[in-house]
Specification:
7 helices, 7 strands, 2 domains, Herpes Virus-1, 245 residues, two-stranded antiparallel ribbon, elongated
């Protein structure tokens, strides 16, 4: 009759006997005992280039150090299918932890769900901010800046106007006409620079109403796109604002 051994706690097999934590880069010795690479590096005798197994004390020569040891592929496969069970950094409960694809943090199922909701809310906030970011604000700034320049020009001409009123008036009108053309060129340039961002911006804003139905990967992808559009739009607006100043 064949004996069947039931593993009550697979997590015990995935624990390093040195650090007592889950294996990190498990390396198998010639005696078939397995330890974390970092743990073996700490016990490696650099002077003699030897390593003594912490479990059975077998000494082996490792010219290139623990890095040359083969990885324990079986344990690596088991770790891939066995969720990490440890203390959740948020609620301190010992649970099976999952890794957030957005920030690489580990949390239990309940805390991870809260974290996803936070990502969802953050995405909604960024979408709202994106919707309120408009090139109209920049156009108003351009109009105000050129209005101040016009007022300054008119003020200066008024102060120096003496006998040649008609000549000065023509000169003033010519300068103001050039200023109008320059303002219009700048407004056209603003529209040209920002137009490529308008369509993706509108598409992202349109997704604002479907956030609740999105899962974590979709939310992370959307958040990344929103942040990218926000950054590019802010750079464009800042560049033109700097020109005005």
């Amino acid at each position: 009759m064949t004996n069947v051994y039931k593993i009550e706690n697979l997590e015990d097999l995935l624990q390093c006997a040195i650090c007592l934590d889950r294996f990190q880069i498990p390396k198998v010795l010639s005696c078939q005992h397995t330890f974390c690479l970092a743990c073996l590096q700490r016990t490696y005798n650099i002077q003699h280039r030897t390593l003594s197994c912490p479990t059975c004390r077998k000494v082996m020569n490792l010219i290139q150090g623990p890095d040359e040891l083969p990885s324990n592929l079986l344990l690596i496969s088991l770790m891939d299918v066995q969720p990490v069970k440890a203390k959740c950094p948020c609620c301190q409960k010992v649970e099976k932890l999952t890794i957030c694809e957005h920030c690489n943090c580990t949390k239990c199922t309940d805390c991870n769900e809260k974290h996803i909701n936070e990502i969802r809310q953050s995405t909604k906030t960024k979408l709202d901010e994106l919707q309120n970011t408009s090139q109209n604000d920049l156009k108003v700034s351009i109009h105000d800046a050129f209005k101040n320049i016009r007022n300054e020009i008119c003020s200066q001409f008024q102060s120096i106007r003496q006998q040649h009123d008609s000549i000065l008036l023509m000169k003033q009108m010519d300068i103001l006409k050039q200023l109008d053309a320059h303002e219009q060129n700048l407004l056209t340039q603003v529209e040209t620079d920002l137009q490529p961002l308008e369509q993706p911006k509108l598409e992202l804003i349109g997704k604002n109403y479907h956030l609740e139905s999105k899962n974590e990967p979709e939310l992370i992808n959307l958040l990344t796109k929103v942040s990218d559009i926000q950054s590019r739009l802010a750079d464009k607006l800042a560049a033109h604002q700097k020109y005005l100043n």
